[in-house]
């Protein structure tokens, strides 16, 4: 069983919750805040320390597993050797013990298989935890994308464009089934359509203004042609009038005649009077034409100014039209990308939900398997304890047999005094063996307590994983508003959790190191016991050889003494020799069994070494998978940063497009105001021209009436 620290989640690149939106204003693109560099460096150092501690934990755990396997193999060897030694003398009790030993072997094999299955289940649980963490990271990224998409949609909805929202309800069959996201997307589409309609209206208005400008240009050209014609006619009339004036004024050198004179009366005829009247009418007409010429020149200047203003306005309208077209196209493209991203995020969310369900199913299966394994492991521990007790009993029986054998040898060779000394030495040895057995029992109890503690840690870790999964499911079920409200609290909790995990890792490292040292000590003691048992086996083999030699010598002596002692004690000597021969045969058979068992143990050790190599290869594969997962996580992080940068750029473009649209609205309002003022002025000018023409027509002079003689006489010509 592994400890609680071994089951800690080793995520490929720890991502804290409060670093969820740190890449929106990435330092490579927007510049980093120097105040934030300190906590970032602290977080990086904490992450590096955590990864280093986790690697050290995994390495120590693998070494602990290797030491446990070696200790189990050594215990199995000890047990087999004790069985071999005990099989030297077979009795009914020993036969039952052999059967129990065979059953214990089978149970040990089952225990080894179960430990392998448990290791495989632990590996699967670790992989499922890695997958769950990857899915949590994907879920966070998807939630972040959804939040950012919501910001983009809100920014697009914030554009003030007049549109008919009733079209949204009329376009769909079931408006009640529409989600708010679909409604917002439909509203955005309607706004884009309204903007395109406004653009078309602006283009039509621009065309109308161009037509009016062309008409005004034609009118100005016609007025200029009339003005030229009038100037030529006026110039010719002015020349003729000037000639007549010089003839009438400058040509006379004498003063005019008085009215009483005969010359005046003779010169004042009807023709002269008609000529004077024509001259006066021409002069008045010339003055009127000059006034009209001045007025027409002013109108021409005003028309030219208005024409220039209209051309400038048309150019501005064309520019705004092009800008609006570009913005509408960019908004349409952005809307398409947003819709595609929304569909992709929805699909990813569905996939993550399915994967979460699968992981939950696997987790439940692993929990049930773990509970079964723990129960079976406890029963196996109990059986293992009973088997160890039997091993100790067999060891004591082997020691007793060795003592008896040694006693028989000493009785044959040594006198009674030496026998007493040997008995005292044997008693001391038995006391030492009893003390060793008590120490072994204490070690077994300590191992059992350590196993119980590891089981409790495993159960607590399983409960913690269940709580974390329940918390993640609750977070998935929470709405977006609550998630936004809980972000600050989650950041604080994540910082506290990081510190707690670091402290737990340090404490668990100290526990693991202590347990590792204890396992090393146990491993060394097991090796020492193996060496002692091998030495005892060699000693027994030597004693067997010596007994064989002694038996041969004894047989020779018996053959020599049989002729002398045929009559006395034949029956007792024969029985004694038969018992010794039987014991020798049994010892030879036991020796052969022991050699076979030793060979089998050597083959098993070789197989165990191969299995350990395979396990190391699987660990290397796990390291490669971990590196691959880290590489994938870095690629996902890079793609997320690129997407974040693109989103920020799109938001900036939408903001600029909104500003440009606002400017275009203001410019269109200004143009409309100018057009209305221009039309009003033109209408006023036309009304003034018509009134002036009417007034001039009404104020025309009456027809010329010649003066009478008396009226002429009354006039003063001075």
From TrEMBL:
Keywords attached to this entry: Coiled coil
Protein name as it appears in the record: Uncharacterized protein
Compositional bias (Basic and acidic residues): 544-570
Coiled coil: 43-77, 104-138, 185-226
Disordered: annotated segments: 407-431, 471-494, 544-574, 683-702
KW Protein biosynthesis (keyword) present: no
Biased composition (Acidic residues): 415-429
Compositionally biased intervals (Polar residues): 688-701
Source organism, top-level taxon: Eukaryota
């Amino acid at each position: 069983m592994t400890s609680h620290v071994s089951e800690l989640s080793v995520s490929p690149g720890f991502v804290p919750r409060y670093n969820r939106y740190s890449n929106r204003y990435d330092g490579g693109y927007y510049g980093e805040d120097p105040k934030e560099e300190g906590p970032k460096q602290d977080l990086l150092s904490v992450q590096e320390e955590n990864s280093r501690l986790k690697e050290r934990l995994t390495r120590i755990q693998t070494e602990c597993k290797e030491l446990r396997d070696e200790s189990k193999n050594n215990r199995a060897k000890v047990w087999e050797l004790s069985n071999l030694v005990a099989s030297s003398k077979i009795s009914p009790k020993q036969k039952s013990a052999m059967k129990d030993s065979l059953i214990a072997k089978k149970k040990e094999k089952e225990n080894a298989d179960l430990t392998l299955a448990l290791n495989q289940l632990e590996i699967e649980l670790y992989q499922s935890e890695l997958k769950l963490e990857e899915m949590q990271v994907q879920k966070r990224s998807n939630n972040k994308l959804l939040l950012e998409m919501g910001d983009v949609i809100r920014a697009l909805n914030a554009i003030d464009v007049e549109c008919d929202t009733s079209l949204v309800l009329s376009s769909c069959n079931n408006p009640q089934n529409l989600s708010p996201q679909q409604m917002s997307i439909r509203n955005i589409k309607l706004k884009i359509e309204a903007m395109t309609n406004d653009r078309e209206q602006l283009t039509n208005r621009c065309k109308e203004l161009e037509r009016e400008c062309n008409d005004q240009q034609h009118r100005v050209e016609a007025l200029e042609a009339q003005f030229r014609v009038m100037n030529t006619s006026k110039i010719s009339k002015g020349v003729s009038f000037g000639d007549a004036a010089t003839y009438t004024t400058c040509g006379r050198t004498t003063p005019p005649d008085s009215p009483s004179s005969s010359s005046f009366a003779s010169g004042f005829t009807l023709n002269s009077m008609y000529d004077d009247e024509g001259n006066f009418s021409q002069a008045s007409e010339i003055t009127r034409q000059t006034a009209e010429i001045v007025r027409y020149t002013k109108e021409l200047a005003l028309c030219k100014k208005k024409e220039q203003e209209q051309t400038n306005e048309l150019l501005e309208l064309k520019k705004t039209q092009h800008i609006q077209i570009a913005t509408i196209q960019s908004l349409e493209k952005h809307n398409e990308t947003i819709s595609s991203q929304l569909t992709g995020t929805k699909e990813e969310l569905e996939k993550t939900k399915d994967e979460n369900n699968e992981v939950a199913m696997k987790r439940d299966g692993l929990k049930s398997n773990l509970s079964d394994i723990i129960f079976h492991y406890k029963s196996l521990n109990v059986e293992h304890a009973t088997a160890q007790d039997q091993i100790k009993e067999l060891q004591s029986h082997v020691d007793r047999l060795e003592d008896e054998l040694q006693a028989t040898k000493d009785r044959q060779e040594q006198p009674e005094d030496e026998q007493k000394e040997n008995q005292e030495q044997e008693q001391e040895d038995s006391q030492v063996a009893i003390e060793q057995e008590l120490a072994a029992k204490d070690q077994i109890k300590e191992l059992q307590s350590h196993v119980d503690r590891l089981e409790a840690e495993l159960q607590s870790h399983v409960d913690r994983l269940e709580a974390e999964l329940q918390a993640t499911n609750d977070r998935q079920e929470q709405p977006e508003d609550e998630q936004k409200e809980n972000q600050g609290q989650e950041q604080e909790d994540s910082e506290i959790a990081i510190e707690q995990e670091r402290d737990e890792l340090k404490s668990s490292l100290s526990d693991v190191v202590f347990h590792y040292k204890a396992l090393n000590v146990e491993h060394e003691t097991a090796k020492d016991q193996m060496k002692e048992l091998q030495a005892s086996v060699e000693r027994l083999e030597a004693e067997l050889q010596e007994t064989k030699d002694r038996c041969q010598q004894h047989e020779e002596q018996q053959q020599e003494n049989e002729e002398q002692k045929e009559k006395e004690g034949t029956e007792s000597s024969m029985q004694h020799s038969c018992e010794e021969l039987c014991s020798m045969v049994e010892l030879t058979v036991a020796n052969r069994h022991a050699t076979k068992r030793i060979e089998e143990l050597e083959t098993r050790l070789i197989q165990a070494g191969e299995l350990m190599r395979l396990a190391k290869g699987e660990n290397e594969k796990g390291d490669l998978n971990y590196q691959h997962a880290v590489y994938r996580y870095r690629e996902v992080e890079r793609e997320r940063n690129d997407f974040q940068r693109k989103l920020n750029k799109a938001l900036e473009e939408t903001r600029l497009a909104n500003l440009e649209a606002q400017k275009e609205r203001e410019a269109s309002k200004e143009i409309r105001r100018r057009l209305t003022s221009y039309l009003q002025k033109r209408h006023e000018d036309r009304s003034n021209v018509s009134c002036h023409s009417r007034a001039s027509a009404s104020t025309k002079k009456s027809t010329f009436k010649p003066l009478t003689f008396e009226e002429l006489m009354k006039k003063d010509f001075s």
